[in-house]
Input
Amino acid sequence: MAKQTKYIIVSGGVISGIGKGIIASSTGLLLKTLGLTVTSIKIDPYLNIDAGTLSPLDHGEVFVLDDGGEVDLDLGNYERYLNVTLTRDNNITTGKIYREVIDKERRGDYLGKTVQVVPHITNAIQDWVERVGAMPTSDTGRTPDVCIVELGGTVGDIESAPFIEAMRQFQFRVGHDNFCLIHVSLVPVVGAVGEQKTKPTQASVRDLRGLGLSPDILACRSALPFEEGIREKLSMFCQVSPKQVFSVHDCESLYHVPILLREQGMIDVLTDRLKLDALSISKEIVLEGDTLWAQWREFARRRARDLDATTIAIVGKYTYLADSYISVVKGLEHAALNVKRKINIKWVEASDLEEATMHKDPLKYHEAWQHLCAADGILVPGGFGERGVEGKVLAAKWAREHNVPYLGICLGMQVAVIEFARNICGMTDAQSAEFREGCALPAIVFMPEIDRTTMGGTMRLGSRPTKFQASDVARRSAIYKLYGSANEVHERHRHRYEVNPEIVSELEAKGMQF
Output
């Protein structure tokens, strides 16, 4: 008999962006410290097939998976917290579900039946969750003991209704001991005296119960820890035990959230609710969990210490929403903590570096240049479209001329090539074919294998091997050492354009090595 995976559903109420992803990731991490194998699924109720065509300013970063899936940024959190490798199937959207059901209808799978939201859409959702929840995602290859399912959106949203109904049915499909619902809600602090209000959470739980789901755990977001009596009041009006109500107040960092939950008894509540103590886990695996928790506590402790700071300027196109670059930020944080440094990020909107801004808004222009010039390093991340590109070129020029460490990711690497071609190789009209199709000197060109007509899912996507050349330059490079002197590494790609191979020899002759 196949092992029955246990499911923890994480829903959200009152407002969107309340932190369900961090609660889900933190819960999964705590379960891993018990030696359990954990996987995760994110449900996004929008009609898009995937996140690939969404603007980062609307929805945050598009996270790319090994298999090329373009997914919600929360899956990046899951991979970082749980050390798993997810697939595109770990991100469910309304578009994917409806496409699957309509394809079945066209094939005749429902022949003679009227295809409806209930039962056909809701069954498709349940089947998907059950299938993916049992797929191994860790490097051990073990079948998951627990699957964390984050239900995107807010309870009461029209687009979330089929998923709520599917989860209502799902609790009976898998059984009471294999289903736990965590509801993340808001306890706002109101007024000059800072009084915490429970009515929004009460209303949210009432809506959820009206839809057939009763929360087993309340995770209440607030700026401050619970005041006296708040936990008991929420317990009384939301029909949960006081020990099942958790204060998830603002912390020094997100890395402290698992510690906060554990200190309030989250592991005990989950163990009791899901009968986790009945699972058979070897002592060796339990020891792995203990080691993981010790490492996490040390990681969080370093984050809280007063360390020497390194300032990095991120020159981007979507800097008004920091979540647009969340993987870049986390990468910088983790790298800094591993060398016992604190990262200080200065956000620079690329277009603010351009001459047009100097005439339109001199204060913004000089402030942007001040941040850039004062930075210890410059990072230019990816992006699409022409806006701000010349500002990125100027940032690359400053870094080269002043010997400031520079990391260009995707478009950031491409603008460095354009800058070098213009100012070192004498190709003054060098440009990217993305912005000037048919330009005289395309330093960056459209990759031949890419579909020029369809936008969604047609880029070079996912994990691809990168081989270091056998040259002395490559072997002496910092990046080669950072990769542990490996001859081949795998990196995730998301782009349609590449450096023009016809000019590589000229670039290398002038000193830009690939």
